[in-house]
Design brief:
This is Aldose 1-epimerase family protein. The protein is mainly beta. Helices cover 3% and strands 38% of the residues. The relative contact order is 0.16.
């Protein structure tokens, strides 16, 4: 498959486009962000945008507070009460969630950095390798951490260099894209433009091979225990329409209501690439499969977006118009080992290496 590569100015950074006859991907080096994914629809003979972000506006990309398309880290997910103990030392991290917890690495974390990048183009492989070195104690996390995620088939590679003042740290780096397979209406890049809202993802069919969910409170702070999803609206093993149970307040216990839950992938093995999720829109028949080596699939339906949304600046997307299917380690993993798989890496002994692959088809027949 032949790719065309374009690198364009994007605010203080760059927007890198990777294009084929059937797929277009836009990547911003600010936040190592997936800014656009466009699928060519053969029946309609048109390109359909399926990623909720801001590819026309660097200013909105940088101002966004909902992690749209960014690389979350260095320890994404949650750190309960913004503290954890490692090798007998207690560390205190940024309290950027309700003044109590750490969310997605803290203030000015990976999602707010201008990453270095290089376009990788060989006879067998294409992608963009981003790079960022997080200093010791950034956001309260110990150890210098070198991260080099490669995106198209996303491979995460992070390690502690020999020069680091500390030799261990928790790591949970993943992408936080919002998907809408119904398609995103064409977006005007002018700052005062009003965007048309995409159709809600409530109509999406979703399957996730997970028989357990990590027990957590309303803010998705986990207890370290697992609950069975059998017979509940969190049971996606046979596939179900998202909207069937998205309003079940008693079950989902989120405010605003919706899915925001870390599901435990059945049969997970360290390093094994497995199918984690598949979703389909009844409007476009676009399907997306997510393969990953991570142990957890976090399902999120953009519950914290406004409803209704004006479509203007700051309210580009309404509640439930995007869906996160986010392979990762379990939230607050540094505080719950060995109940959760370990997210700790050590200098010279282990590194953070995980893979994620999103595959798009139309009518589940033609691979993108």
């Amino acid at each position: 498959m032949t790719f065309q590569v374009e690198v364009r100015p994007f605010g203080a950074g760059k927007l890198i486009w990777l294009k084929t006859a059937r797929l277009r991907v836009g990547l911003a080096n600010f936040g190592a962000t997936i800014s656009s994914v466009q699928v060519f629809h053969p029946q309609r003979q048109k390109w359909i945008e399926v990623n909720c972000a801001f590819p026309e506006s660097a200013a909105e990309t940088e101002a966004d507070t909902d992690y749209m398309g960014v690389t979350a880290g260095r320890c994404g997910g949650r750190v309960a009460h913004a503290t954890f103990k490692l090798d007998g030392v207690t560390y205190h991290t940024d309290k950027n969630m309700a003044g109590r917890h750490t969310c997605h690495g803290g203030h000015n974390a990976f999602n707010k950095k201008h990453w270095g990048f290089a376009v990788l183009e060989t006879a067998t492989e294409i992608g963009v390798t981003f790079n960022y070195t997080s200093p010791h104690m950034e956001n309260g996390f110990p150890a210098e951490l070198v991260s080099k995620p490669n995106v198209l088939k996303t491979h995460y590679d992070s390690y502690i260099p020999e020069t680091s003042p500390a030799d261990a740290t928790p790591v949970n780096i993943f992408n936080h894209a919002y998907w809408n397979l119904n398609g995103i209406p064409e977006r005007n890049g002018k700052c005062n433009a009003v965007w048309e809202q995409p159709e809600s993802v409530r109509n999406h069919w979703l399957r996730v091979p997970a028989s357990r969910v990590a027990e957590a409170d309303r803010m998705a702070i986990p207890t370290g225990e697992f609950l069975s999803v059998e017979g509940t609206g969190l049971d996606f093993r046979q596939g179900r329409v998202i909207g069937d149970c998205i309003d079940d307040v008693a079950l989902l216990d989120r405010d605003p209501c919706g899915y925001d839950h870390p599901l435990a992938i059945d049969g997970w093995e360290k390093g094994k690439l497995m199918l984690h999720a598949e979703a389909k829109s009844p409007v476009t028949n676009i399907c997306m499969k997510v393969y990953s080596t991570f142990p957890c699939m976090w399902v999120y339906t953009a519950n914290n977006k406004p409803l209704p949304a004006s479509g203007g600046p700051g309210q580009r997307y309404a509640r439930w118009t995007g869906m996160g299917l986010e392979p990762q380690y379990f939230p607050d993993g540094a505080n719950h080992y060995p109940k959760y798989p370990s997210c700790i890496i050590r200098r010279g002994k282990s590194r953070f290496t995980e893979t994620m692959l999103n595959e798009f088809t139309v009518d589940c027949s033609s691979k993108m």
